Amino acid sequence: MAHQQSIFITGGGSGIGQATAKLFAARGWRVGLADVNVAGMAETAALLPPGMSSAYPMDVRDREAWVASLDAFVATTGGRLDVLFNNAGIGSGGPLAETSFEEIDRVIAINLVGALNGARIGYAYLAATPGSCLLNTASASAIYGSAGLAPYSATKFGVRAMTEALDGEWAGAGVKVRSIIPSFIDTPLLQGPAGGSDHSIRETVTGAGLELTSAEDVALAAWAAVHGDKVHTYVGKTAHRMAFAARWMPGKLRKMMRRGITTREG
Q1: Residue positions annotated with a catalytic role
Q2: Which of 11, 113, 187, 234 suits a disulfide with 266, CB 3.0-4.6 Å?
Q3: How many beta carbons lie within 10 A of that of residue 244, not counting itself?
Q4: pLDDT (tens digit, 9 = 90+) per residue, 185-219?
Q5: What digits encode the pLDDT tens for the residues 23-33?
Q6: Are strands 176-182 and 53-57 parallel, antiparallel or unpaired?
């Protein structure tokens, strides 16, 4: 057991987290699932080979829960934590002027402070495992701020910045820090209503002529990110196009956002 590689995944009960758990477990890794969604974690575990996973009900805002969950997980891996996947996050949309302060606080606490909690607390476990990696889920909203998603975009820019900062900060300790930057991911989050409309986010995205990327494709990108040397791994055509436009055609991207095309990552 001591030589089996291991990954601890927040948001492991659905979407990207679930797809990543399936991929890594299929390749022989032990998987720790963390989520507030206990039923979702049970669903994920049922999709994995028997005995390859363990589940930890926790909220990424709860620092004591982080310590307890990571302690319990590494007790099953011979002390190894090869990858900590900071993936948990919530979507939230709508005009900022109409967004409650409670919702702003919740998005920032889960998406940004939760990821910082994972990095701060997870570092000791990662540093004790040679060749380890902190992997963060950012978003195409971290390429150029998305109209209708101001708090969400702000948190994902923060995750991207944290990734770059820690890539430099932790290099001396031999801990890699990476992010995946997906665009529109085909997960249950897309079924929610788009801000200020009676259409789902899925309908808004596809109606704008933008493609959806499967969670399985994101899982493959997560594997590539962990094993590669790029700080940021873009996933899906839209993310690649936005990255190109942000660098070479910022005026066009600005006009697109002013037309109210919203982006949402799952």
Answers
A1: 152
A2: 187
A3: 13
A4: 655 555 544 444 444 444 444 444 455 678 888 99
A5: 999 999 999 99
A6: unpaired
